[in-house]
Specification:
It holds the Pfam family Ion_trans_2. The chain is mostly helical. It contains 13 helices and 2 strands, in the order αααβαβααααααααα. α3 runs antiparallel to α5 and α7 packs parallel to α9.
Length: 328
């Protein structure tokens, strides 16, 4: 009997330790997802992206947040329940002192985790009194930290949308964006916008460090998709970079912008190698620049990072180069 009690306590403790390690790694470490959260969100992402119509995109962030929270909560409850099952005296009726049933132990556990008290039951021995105090405090920490974390996630998502909308306001496609930044009379616009865009990219990149779930808030509207807008901006920058001497200030601004986009992609997509390389597809789309009398040089690693980011956000290179009927 004591062996079974020990096994249940150890099993419950291991589950709780793994759960809180994953929880604090994800919410406080600034090093991306814990292994459990990463597996949950990666699996959900595959399911969402299979829906080609993008109808689930507007709910993807909500689904990921709720699923992650539910997994943490279920693991917490499972670990505690195993410990409460380890012996008949672990939980008893407050009035009669009789051992609680399985359902009553679940009821007691939920009361404790929600910090509402003990309900109609109490710990039956000193060991579980210690455990109950720890569980109550743990439940409070998990609930309050998760709430604060997800409020910060919402703010980070809004910052991402602001970046996308800022870029799309300069042009709704690559042609308009190129026109906006390349017209001689508006050359000052590149100088004015480069600093602001870099600043917004850095803010969005920082959000990925602390809030990795942000990457799973998918957008079904092109103008509000950060990955799509950054891909368009990068394509325009590749072309513009060929039009300035390397020693010029504009070349340096463009180079700095491209580097900030690269940092954003490195931080925002953890598994780039999961996505197949498509250099021929990218080169095919870039043929449009030759038609317009411009040059767009390939950059294999950056091209793959952009391709992976687009795929992870539910877009493709056709969307990057989709244009309205107009001339360059």
């Amino acid at each position: 009997m004591r062996i079974m009690q020990t096994v249940l306590i150890i099993t419950g403790a291991i589950i709780l330790i793994l759960n809180f390690a994953d929880f604090f790694h994800t919410t406080l470490s600034g090093n991306g997802f814990g292994k459990i959260s990463a597996a949950v969100n990666k699996g959900l992402s595959v399911l969402v992206l299979k829906n080609k119509s993008k109808t689930l995109f507007k709910y993807s962030g909500l689904v990921h947040v709720l699923a992650t929270t539910v997994v943490w909560l279920l693991l917490l409850l499972t670990g505690i329940y195993f410990i409460n099952l380890s012996g008949p005296e672990m939980v008893v009726n407050a009035q009669t002192g009789l051992p609680a049933s399985y359902l009553d132990r679940f009821y007691f556990m939920c009361y404790v985790v929600s910090t509402l008290g003990n309900g109609d039951f109490i710990p039956g021995n000193n060991l579980n009194r210690i455990f109950t105090g720890i569980f109550s405090f743990s439940g409070f920490i998990l609930l309050t930290t998760a709430l604060t974390y997800f409020l910060s996630v919402v703010k980070a998502v809004l910052q991402k949308k602001q970046l996308a909308l800022y870029i799309s306001s300069m042009g709704t496609d690559v042609k308009q964006l190129y026109n906006y930044l390349s017209v001689e009379d508006n050359s000052q616009l590149l100088k004015e916008n480069a600093h602001q865009i870099r600043k917004m990219i850095i803010v969005a990149s920082s959000a990925y460090i602390f809030f990795p779930v942000v990457q799973y808030f998918l957008i079904d509207e092109k103008r509000a998709s950060t990955e799509l807008q950054l891909a368009r901006l990068h394509e325009v920058l590749l072309v513009l970079q060929n039009e300035f001497p390397k020693s010029s200030d504009n070349y340096k601004r463009i180079h700095g912008l491209r580097k900030s986009i690269s940092y954003y992609l490195d931080l925002g997509l953890e598994d780039q190698e999961d996505y197949e390389r498509k250099p021929l597809k990218i080169a095919s789309e870039r043929q449009l620049w030759k038609k317009w009398g411009r040059t767009c040089s390939p950059h294999s690693e950056m091209d793959h990072s952009l391709h992976a980011a687009l795929q992870g956000a539910g877009w493709d290179w056709e969307d990057v180069y989709e244009a309205e009927e107009q001339t360059l």
